[in-house]
Amino acid sequence: MIVQLKKWHILFWVFIFFVSALAQQNKLAQLRKEIQNLEAELKHNRAREKTLIDQIEDVEREIGLRGGILRELEKQITIISNQLKQTEQDLERSIQSYHRLQQVVAKRIVSMYKRGSTVDLEAILQMESMNQALVWAKYQKIILDNDERNLILLQKKQNEITRQKNKKANELNEKNRYFLSKKTEAQVLEKKKERRNALLRRERQDIRSKSDLLKRKREAFAEIQGMIASREVQRKQAGGHLDGSQFSSLKGKLDWPVNGRVVTRYGRIRDAKTKIWTENLGIDISTGEGASVRCPGKGRITVRDWRRGVGNLVIIEHGDGYYTVYGNLDIVLVRAGDDIKAGDLIGYVGDENSLNGSMLHFQVWKGGTHHNPLSWLKKKS
Description:
Layout: H1 2-45, H2 52-115, H3 118-125, H4 130-203, H5 207-238, H6 245-248, E1 261-264, E2 267-270, E3 277-280, E4 283-286, E5 292-294, E6 299-307, E7 311-319, E8 322-332, E9 339-340, E10 345-349, E11 359-366, E12 369-371
Helix pairs in contact: 1-2, 2-4
């Protein structure tokens, strides 16, 4: 019974490792497909003249996707490393068990050789009854059967050690393959960042590019408003399934999605460089490079997309018409339809050299109305 339980325990963890590895492979395939689609789009649009902002946003979009691939490769390397470590431990235990059994079998063979067949004959002659002889014969058969089982087990352990050695070699090859892929992706990512930085140096001297960027943001905000309005229609028609009472009770107590300071406030603002007025539907929170963005309240991912003006975009529905919006993400770790809890990781912001710098754009909505996020977030001491 104990052996069977151990067997099922091992099979369970093998299954977990298999499912985890398969999920990571699917994520990598999805990210590579997004890059292929982007490259096809760029090729299709190459004939038309692109503005500087167009070029920067295209490069940043690819940087985000390739950054996602790198993180998935790192996860895969960790999984393979853990599997390799477990295989090495299993192999060491199998070798030790093999050596112990080998010693037992060797002792029995030496003992049998020293005793010889005359010992058995003497033992039979000294027995006082047939019953003793039968008991002795039964005992000898048990010993012989046990020796036979030990020899069979010894062969099985030899086969198991060979199998584990082969498994270790395969896992090591797989790990090296992922390391090579990671190195290649890192080199490509670095070249993309160099290209982005060169374009940014030109953009910072170009007021027209700044105007284009503000225009893109206005268009992106209009698209976000349209997405939420469309979702509200669907929600009301379906009767709504998410309970937003918990989220509504968090007004003024909501955890900040990212640590940082507000650099662009909510409402109408005037750009110092272009003198253009625009309405900010949320706030921009400046933070450290690659900072983690976390969900402040439970909900469901409604939108996971990319939009010019806000880059990688995530919208979370919290129930009863409440939504939070996250823009300027560098890497996104969630997908549309995912359920999410307070504190769960959504993704990461970009580096300080990105088009919008290391900052998160954050919005709060109720129905079709955007709210000042600062009235929802906890007051900082």
